[in-house]
Amino acid sequence: MTESTEKKGALSGLRVIELGQLIAGPFCGQLLGDMGAEVVKVEPPGAGDPMRVWGQGDKPTWWQVIARNKYSVAADLKTPDGQDFVRKLISRADILIENFRPGTLERWSLAPSDLLKINDRLIIVRVSGYGQTGPYASRAGFGGIAEAMGGLRKIVGEPDRPPARVGISIGDSLAATYGCMGALAALHDRKTSGKGQIVDVALYESVLQVMEGLIPEWSVTGHKRTRTGSKLPGIAPSNVYRCSDGEYLIGANQDGVFARLCKAMARPELSRDPRFSNHIARGRNQDELDEMINAWTERLTVDELEAITIEHNVPAGRIFDAEDMLSDPHFKARDAIVTLNDPELGPVPMQGAFPKLSRTPSNVRRNAPLRVGQDTDEIKMRWLGE
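Below the sequence we write its predicted structure tokens.
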């Protein structure tokens, strides 16, 4: 897949400098790059971003995803030469992304206030554990710590076990997404103001933002959310149910949908049973209802249950892993998975670029940089005329 054969995307023409490493900053850069921005990743000479060697399995492949659509330049930001090079790039950039601990850019003589003097149209996305202000600002912060402080870890897992993790670096990815959203909002403002600004993203606040009614439920009603495993308390049926050969997720908590599920179960009378006839009643008798549904589903295979729920228009679905996704016709029809030909790894399937825009679609135009600093000369020439 080459850049010249693909549409350029909605952010084509925008220049982004990515100073961050690991996940939160680089995923923000990935999102902007997928939407068409030209993303120049500044890596320390030598090993580069630690993400180059991250991933599970016998070969690291995460880099191929998070560094796609990016150019790699090498610069040591701890040295005057490296700092001077980055300042030159910043003078030609639209967006700067960084996810170092607060105060790091300042120590490197790259304080945002100084950078805005160089380029007053610059939008600076600063991602950190606790934000740029407040008593915790200087603390080291990773995504998992933010998930704990933001309330997520407290409610994930089984009630009789310690808090569990979601399974992905969701705190980092949420912060990166909010960083991208903040940058786009700042770009819109720049159209009228002509000025850039700083986007201050805290990992813990990014988690907090998606915690639904967690705070008002406690403040107003005294209800404190706890770990409840696979079910959503008071929302029934909405759970993972056992089949003879696996598990299946069913969400039929709305009255009309529940009636259709009862017909699918050949037990239409359940929808009129006072224990289950409305949303409140089903929530109160959730465990009993789940046992009834499990007794039905465990006699069926996943294929059989899927056919029945589709026939009766009940929201339900398989629980996919990567192997399932690669063979599923819906993923294929929507190009949800794309394949890049990596010079070292060969074909590398990965998630596509989302969301889908009808006129200026996001896309994957470039492989992740193979070598640290491989594009330094090209960027010097095109951006700086050197």
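The longest strand covers residues 38-43.
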